[in-house]
Specification:
2-enoyl-CoA Hydratase, Chain A, domain 1, about 50% helix, 2 domains, globular, 9 strands, about 15% strand, alpha/beta, 6-stranded mixed β-sheet, 10 helices, 3-stranded mixed β-sheet
Amino acid sequence: MTAYQTILLEKKDKVATIWLNRPEKRNAVNEQMIGELIHAVTEINRDDRQRLILLRGKGKSFSSGADLDMMKNIDETGDERPGGVKNQLSRCLETLYQSGKPVIGVAHGSVFGGANGILAVCDIVLADIKTIFSFSEVKIGLIPAVISPFVIKRIGEFHARDFMLTGRKLSATEAESSGLINRALPPDLLDKYLNELITNILDASPAAVKKCKSLIDQVVNRWTFMEAKSETEKWIREIRATEDAQQRIRSFLDKKKG
C-alpha cells in the first residue's frame, strides 16, 4: 500500500476510509493532498475487496478548504500548465464524482471554501449537527470556481447565489435543508446512521450498485430525456439477465414463499 503524507487510507471489512490528515492545518487542501486523493480513490476503485469509500477528516475539522499558501504560490507563479493545481483539483473532484464505489462523506467542525466541493461530489454526506459550513472564497477576494459545477448541481442556483455571494456561515441544519448534505445528526446518532448506511450498501449487489451509479450519471449528465427512455429499458433487460440478479431474485422469492 502506498505511503501517503497528507491522507490516511484504512481498509477494513470491505470499507475503505480516506482520512484528510493535516490536522495542524485543519486539513487545508494543498497540491500534495489533491494528488494523494486522486491516487487513493483510483487505488480503491481497482480493489474488488473494497465496496465503498468513507471520506473523513482528522482533528477538529473536516477541512478549512484550500491551503492559502498554495493559493499564494499560484498567484505568484501562475498555474496555466496542464498539470497545474487548478486542473488537478478539477480532476480530483471528477475522480471522486465518477468513482465506481459509493462515496460517503462525513463532516465535522468546519467545512470552508473548496472543502464544500469535496463533499458535493460524494454520493451521500452526513455531518455532525455542530458543523459549520461556508463558501468563504469571496471573503478573501476569490470565487468558488472549480467546485461550482458540482456544488450548483447539488444545491441548485437558488441556494448557490445565497451561499456563494455572501460567504456567510451556515449551520448543519441549513446545509441539510439546502441539499448540501443529506443528514445532520448528533454524534451518537450519526455513527448509528452511518453504520446503517454501510450495512445497506454491503448487503446490496456490488454489480447493481456500480451499475446504478453509472445509471444516475447517464440520466443526469449525458442522455437526453428521449434517449433515457430507450436506454433505461435496455439497461434493465441487461442487468436482469445477469446471474447475480437471477440468484438474488430467486432467493427473495424463496424467502417470501417461506
